[in-house]
Design a protein that fits this description.
single chain, mainly beta, 4-stranded antiparallel sheet
């Protein structure tokens, strides 16, 4: 295995924490961004200490008055990379990070193993894990916070946001706070009041001492509001973190860094805001790469010798597009503007067309299927797939030898498990045939690409299965030819979101993967 080049294209911040053997005063702050832990120095604290303002008085009709919006003030201090977390037995990039000062250890969670917490020392060396003894196992986990500096009576306990599916909630979920000791015992479960519990909470921090009341702060990826809750889950205060840029919405991590300062970070912007609710916020810039985040689709355009990559702009998280990424991985330009219903991208070299998998969008009358575009980004038709499957394609690749699409749908019947690639004709008609990669011990196709076309129609596939940390080379019928290879050990990635064969140009014969967890592209040869 030869890594030719790799580059992180953008930020994937999940959580932040203060870390110091002493009570932190103005930093530093550690950020878990993809697999990397970054250190950011914040400003010295301001005086005097303050409390969060109380909730504003309700307006007629049930609304609330908006608070003052303080101006921004840049700081401009570069971030230092401390270590990565790939040495931990995690299966996905952590959603939470916190620091236990008394133990001089970082703590991480794993959304693929919601009942586990993992520890490292300050250098990133693994220091064991614990099993959390939940009363009810959560469906998702998010931010972490440490109580050791904030509320001494709880000792070294942690707080973690746990999210449970809830059909009775308008959002379909309920967010709770789990108070956990370092042996994994759940000391207390806090269910916030309904207006907060139905949000998808992402960040948690205990209010910095001294404070007149024991409270903690929570934030959501849905908006820029920070909520102050007491230990009964009642909201006793809130304020809005000023938007750093137009369209900047959602907070992934928050932490109280001093008696009067709070730091907050968005998932993709690469900006850490440090502010007090009545002062002037300041911003630390830790942007990574080109600003192309969450690359969940990748294909090779053999006409222009460029990658086609599906992702989002760091400052427009609600917009999706297909970009043309240069082969050095150092620049990109817009190819196609899409929407939140777009899923994957592939390329039809024989017709010089770009194909995008798309979920049903009843509002704009776009059915579930495959959208086609020419090289100029203009629509070239729609291939509906609703007659085959009503759900969206989550795997999409083109088979040039047979002029077919290989597709895996989000939900399929028992005859098409996630190890099988459906073969659809060029017009979307189901051929009734599929390629069963179960022959190569694949349980779930995470990413797949066709390569080595032959005159006899006997090309090969490179297939990834993230659930088993493996990828293999198969023949056209799905039988294993080479492998398995460990994704983690060979590519330093946990969960690739797409793979493509490079068929033209200097790197012909190589492959590339995109990694949505780390906003990264890796080019390699077998």
């Amino acid at each position: 295995m030869q890594i030719i080049r790799r580059n992180r294209l953008g930020n994937n911040t999940e959580d932040i924490t203060s870390f110091s053997s002493l009570i932190p005063r103005g930093g530093p702050v550690a950020v878990i961004d993809g697999y990397d832990v970054l250190s950011i120095q914040t400003t010295p604290p301001l005086e005097p200490p303050i409390k969060l303002p109380p909730l504003p008085a309700p307006l007629p009709g049930g609304g609330q008055a908006a608070g003052a919006q303080p101006a921004l003030g840049p700081i401009g201090r570069p971030a230092t990379r401390l270590f990565d977390v790939l040495g931990l037995p995690i299966k996905a990039a952590p959603r939470g990070i916190t620091y236990v000062a008394s133990r001089k250890m970082f703590v991480f969670n794993d959304d693929a193993q919601t009942n586990k917490l993992f520890f490292t020392d300050e250098r990133g060396m693994a220091r064991g894990s614990i099993d959390v003894q939940f009363r009810q196992a959560p469906d998702f986990v998010e931010g972490l916070g440490s109580m050791s500096a904030a509320i001494p009576r709880f000792g070294d306990a942690l707080a973690m946001i746990a999210i449970f599916n809830d059909s009775n909630s308008p959002s379909g979920g309920q967010s709770r706070l789990e108070i956990i000791d370092l042996e994994g015992h759940v000391l207390k479960e806090i269910v916030p009041e309904p207006d907060v519990a139905q949000l998808f909470l992402t960040g948690v921090s205990f209010n910095f001492p001294p404070n007149l009341r024991e409270t903690f702060l929570v934030s959501s990826d849905d908006d820029n509001v920070i909520h102050e809750l007491d230990f009964a889950g009642t909201q006793v205060g809130q304020f809005t973190a000023t938007a750093r840029q137009t369209g900047f919405i959602g907070l992934e991590g928050i932490v109280s860094v001093a008696p009067n300062e709070i730091a907050a970070a968005n998932g993709f912007a690469g900006l850490l805001e440090v502010f007090n609710p009545i002062g002037v916020p300041q911003v630390v810039d830790y942007r990574i790469g080109l600003g192309l985040s969450l690359p969940n689709g990748l294909a090779w355009d053999s006409t222009t010798n460029e990658f086609l990559i599906f992702g989002l702009d760091r400052l427009r998280p609600d917009a999706r597009f297909v970009a043309r990424l240069a082969t050095p991985l150092d620049s990109f330009r817009l190819a196609i503007g899409t929407d939140l219903f777009a899923r994957k991208v592939t390329y039809l070299p024989d017709e010089q067309l770009i194909a995008v998998g798309h979920a049903n969008n009843a509002k704009d009358n776009v059915p579930a299927g495959i959208l086609l575009f020419n090289e100029q980004g203009q629509s070239a038709g729609v291939i509906p797939t609703g007659n085959v499957n009503k759900t969206a394609p989550v795997i999409l690749t083109y088979l040039p030898e047979t002029r077919e699409f290989g597709v895996v749908f989000r939900k399929d019947d028992k005859t098409h498990p996630p190890s099988k690639l459906r073969r659809l004709q060029r017009d979307g008609t189901d051929t009734g045939a599929s390629i069963d990669f179960g022959l190569a011990d694949i349980q779930k196709i995470s990413a797949v690409t066709f390569f080595k076309p032959t005159s006899t129609g006997a090309g090969q596939f490179l297939v990834f299965d993230n659930t088993q940390d493996m990828f293999v080379v198969t023949d056209f019928n799905g039988a294993k030819l080479n492998g398995p290879f460990s994704i983690r050990d060979t590519l330093r990635v946990l969960n690739p979101t797409a793979v493509t064969a490079i068929t033209t140009g200097p790197d012909a014969g190589a492959f590339a993967i995109s990694n949505g967890e780390n906003s990264e592209v890796v080019v390699f040869r077998l």
